[in-house]
Write a structure and sequence with these properties.
The chain is about 40% helix and about 20% strand. The chain starts with 10 loop residues before the first helix and ends with a strand. It has 16 helices and 24 strands. It is an alpha/beta fold. A seven-stranded mixed beta sheet has the order 14-17-18-13-12-20-21, with helices on both faces. Strands 9-8-7-10-11-23 form a six-stranded mixed beta sheet, with helices on both faces. A three-stranded antiparallel beta sheet has the order 5-6-24. The structure holds 1,4-dihydronicotinamide adenine dinucleotide and magnesium ion. The site of magnesium ion has 3 residues, from loops. 1,4-dihydronicotinamide adenine dinucleotide binds next to α8 and α9.
Amino acid sequence: MGIAVSPQIHPQVAEFIDKPRKMLINGRWVNAASGKIFPTYNPATGEVLAQVAEGDREDIDQAVKAARNAFDSGPWRRMTASERGRLIWKLADLLEQHTEEFGYIESLDNGKPLNIAKAADVPLAVDLFRYMAGWATKIEGNTIPLSVPYTPGAKYLAYTLREPVGVVGQIIPWNFPLLMAAWKLGPALATGCTVVLKPAEQTPLSALRLGELIMEAGFPEGVVNVVPGYGETAGAALAAHPDVDKVAFTGSTEVGKLIVHAAAGNLKKVSLELGGKSPNVVFKDADLETAIPGSASAIFFNHGQCCCAGSRLYVEKSVYDQVVEGVAEAARKIKIGSGLDPETHMGPLVSEEQMNRVCGYLESGFSEGAKALVGGHKGGDRGYFVEPTVLVNTKENMKVVQEEIFGPVVVAMPFTDPEEIVPRANNSDYGLAAAVWTRDIGKAHRMAEQLRAGTVWINCYNIFDAALPFGGYKQSGWGREMGHDVLNLYTQTKAVCTRIA
Ligand code: NAI
Ligand code: MG
């Protein structure tokens, strides 16, 4: 099993993927109750990478029991906030020490270049844990002056407590497997919740390795449980589980809506980080030397498999040809290959399914009259590669302009009147991110105010920070992850009122 152990592969990773990976329930590594395993694939070759225990309803049930127990009666709740913070910080240190190893796991399981995983995915996850470690001791309530009209003369001491929401189910996608695990686990642990994490079936390996580091760091058993498995089985069971207090989901808008329905049974709290079709607007007064590479990276980073990808490129007419040709030229220079090859700029898409989905969108675009200035095809003769693609001759009502493609495909469209661009940019069911490139600072901030998106980047793109809240307007989701906003997703407020006179 596993892929041939080549000298290229980090030895610990080769060992890690060589035997079937178990799931983490109540501090122990166990097989699925059914005994089933499922394969994950190396998307650069299409070959089986590793075998993983296939969690289902029964395993989710065991994991929720463990998390419930850890929340209700384990040592976790008796720990001080400072102790919780130190454990999270220790996890960050351990993760940082294993940067190389996690880089390989992400590259092999997801397809992304090793160098990018090591420079972006792992350090961002480390930083997120450190940022959240700091919050553990700073989650505070308020004291509130009361003026109760029907008890004249009475005095009260009233205050609020911010308490952890409880047992949290977390369902994450495959585009940033480790980082999405960190975004979810960091705030849950900082606030004192307990977790059942279900990684994506395409990319379960880094979450399982992280589970080992979580135990090594010294988190009490049952605080974090990791149950790999498919969405329709393990994921659905977690979302519907009556003993889960909150579900946090990142993935497709379609499944996000299923999660909301599943959560209705016990009215568990829900937070959602869903799809996007983010507008990237380049004005003629922009510094094109940064706007052109910035717009290319807005769509091609992570092979376009970003919920916030700048997938609708709007360019003011007088610079349209220059900008779009510049982005196409950048696409031509992208070297596609295995993520482990240091020369590679762009690896494969995560799965055959995703490759076929993206190619289906290309076909749909061509049939509606779009043209590819560059790319437009599947790449390579094995693995799940798609060429970086710039589509022109595109119209607002085309499927490729309306729907999330989630691949390295940008649709480019000119605009003439700066007044027309706001309604066009906002003409989407989504509202995750948007960007504006201009040297006119007043215009930039007027645009920022008018764009209906959870993040607006000005003269930059894909800038993420643990301190910066991220999340969607409209059908891009509910709630904000990261920053102090995320604490609201994992705590609930209790009002305490005492009569003192
Ligand atoms: P998905 O939404 O099906 O998968 C995301 C996670 O949800 C995975 O862990 C999956 O196992 C789980 N899941 C699937 N069905 C479920 C269910 N019924 N109940 C509970 N959990 C369930 O996304 P998929 O199919 O991998 O990709 C489809 C499209 O979704 C992509 O083309 C892209 O447009 C979008 N997507 C958006 C992401 C984002 O970051 N916002 C990430 C991944 C996909
Ligand atoms: Mg799906």
